[in-house]
Amino acid sequence: MAYALVGLLILALVMIGVAITGQRASTKAHQDLDLVTRFDVLTGLPNREQLDAALGDLLEGPDRSLGAVILAQLARFEVVNDTHGHEVGDGLLVAVSDQLKASLTDDERLFRFIGPEFVVLSGGSADTRSAERRAGEFQEVLRRPFRVGSDLVRVATNAGVVVLDRRHTTAREVLAEANIALQQAHHAGPETAVVFDLSMRPTLSPTGTARRLQMALENEEFWVLYLPVVTLGDQQIVGVEALLHWADPERGLVSLNEFRRLLDDSGLIAPVGDWVIEQACRQNLAWHQAFPERELLTTINVSPKQLSRSDFMDRLLATVADTGVAPDRICLEITEGMVMRDVEASWGMLRDAKDAGIKLALDDFGTGYSSLSYLRQFNLDVLKIDRSFVSGIAESREDAAITQQLVALAHSLDIAPVAEGVDSVEQATTLHGLGCDFAQGCYFSPPQPVSAIEAMLATGTVTPAGQTSGIDWSGI
Fold it and tell me: Which CATH number among 3.40.50.150, 3.20.20.450, 3.30.70.2190, 3.40.50.2300 corresponds to the domain 209-459?
């Protein structure tokens, strides 16, 4: 009997121990689940759920006009993943989050939003000027190259900013406005911060846009504007870059940056891209006939989806033949990331273009993602120097040194260097001093209609920034 009681006591103790262990395990599991649902696993930052809650608390407070939201996005982050691998991409996100955390003030909180996007939430007093300045300070912090393992990676950021006021009632509304401002920043160029204002509504959304784009193609609402390329020495116009725009009846003239992804996702990039190529070829021929003394090179951007089509080169060569344009006055512009996704397939296509006399330009060069061997392998004619270097070239010794090396590299390979995004006389002067031959950007001229380019071809030079061009835009 005594042995039986002892046995029962031991069994009871064991069951109690098992129950306690199970309870601890259950508690630990719940804690782990709580961490996963409330914090980003990679960076350890509070996630979207906590951001929504924090914004909700701020909007429900006694003074909802206190605070600002800064939505920052790493530009071209997908290229890092494509070229270096996701491990390096993850390491870059961790390094960026650490750098941003170290830059926070006492009334700021940092959240991981979506992909390469971070949100800084300020609970302090803010106005448009101070919020925009603060966003610029975060961008400056992230301009320095990051070392991830053996790789040195440079990032550019754009930011959308919302200053909270009494019209805001939900976190969703605030974040939607931040995203609209972020898209405006993308349109303005890298390293740009834009503060949302009500004039930015309405904006494009996926809903119904595919149908609207199809109607735009049918109704001839697409326009090709041309961005002049000039010599830095005497500002002679030597080329143009064909840029697609949409004359949207609801929003006015819309640049490609605002609907590029929607064009890709809808599958319309193929017919619209073919249309742009045909328009650019026909226009180059017309300019050559009107101004035979001008050797004008027309550059046409090609998207990854266009280049991946098996019949792309056949259609291109047929268009060149049908329009009668000289192949050597047409230049295909590709990006580093596009080529490196499938080097062999890309080279097959581009080699056929070179054999036909068409020229090739590499865009976004200098961002540190590609091998220098591709410069020689693809037998390039034009090398575009990324605007992220050009934007700070007059003030940054590092940017000036990098640009000088890129220009020297291009010259050594008999490639024409073209600086992108030149917006000031200081940048133009510095680039000329570094030996860069050609440039494009709003300092010389924004994208222009055909009539404006013809006025430039008549004189041979562009109209300097700040002077009236006398161009009639009523035809747009």
Answer: 3.20.20.450
